[in-house]
């Protein structure tokens, strides 16, 4: 910087710093750049089109975590098969998603299906519910992930429409259902483990 400019700027800088002491702030230059006047959320506001300070969200805005889940399948065999053809698991089978899936399975499925998915959970052993098929059974072993997702979402019904396995849509979010499905597919469906 040229000495002439310094000669002008230095006194200004010192001047602005003047007045600083233990009890007093230094003088501020353009204080509203640091401390803007804040509007109250519900106060009128001449600067906005609606004349209000708090702005309504853009139409169609969905609050975080409030995306409504649309399941486009009805109950029954045909719809289950269609879900199997059309839906794929959006979650990769990482050790983290499989571990979550195992934990959810233990909480929500094991009681009927058993730890290894053989259809021998405590409720079956106690004679409280009909025996579910093993995941390795001829029928279930070939279920694609989307079909298992359909079973967990809709449950199963017999020919008269009576519910056999209950729906777990209320207990498990779609993401949790996919984790369970991933675990069943990776660890129980083709497994010969105990
Ligand atoms: C209250 C007991 C019970 C619980 C809990 C349960 N199921 Fe079932 N599940 C059954 C019964 C009973 C059947 C046989 C239903 C049938 O034949 O229609 C069955 C059948 C199934 C089938 C085969 C469906 C078919 O079309 O053959 C799959 C897959 C399945 N369950 C997955 C799960 C998963 C995953 C969970 C945990 C989210 C779960 N089940 C929780 C009782 C249960």
What does this structure look like?
- This protein has a domain at 77-188: Cytochrome c-like domain (Cytochrome Bc1 Complex, Chain D, domain 2, Orthogonal Bundle), CATH 1.10.760.10.
- It has 9 helices and no strands.
- The protein has helices at residues 3-17, 31-34, 77-86, 95-108, 110-113, 122-125, 138-141, 145-154, 174-188.
- Residues 108-109, 111-113, 123, 129-130, 132-133, 139-140, 143, 148, 151-152, 156, 164-166, 168, 180, 184 line the site of heme C (HEC).
Q: Return the string of H and E elements.
A: HHHHHHHHH
The biggest beta sheet is recorded as: none
Structural class: mainly alpha
What is the CATH topology of the domain at 77-188? Cytochrome Bc1 Complex, Chain D, domain 2
Bound molecules: heme C
Q: For the residues shown, what is the average pLDDT?
A: 89
Secondary-structure topology with pairs:
Blueprint: H1 3-17, H2 31-34, H3 77-86, H4 95-108, H5 110-113, H6 122-125, H7 138-141, H8 145-154, H9 174-188
Helix pairs in contact: 3-8, 4-9, 8-9
Bound molecules: heme C.
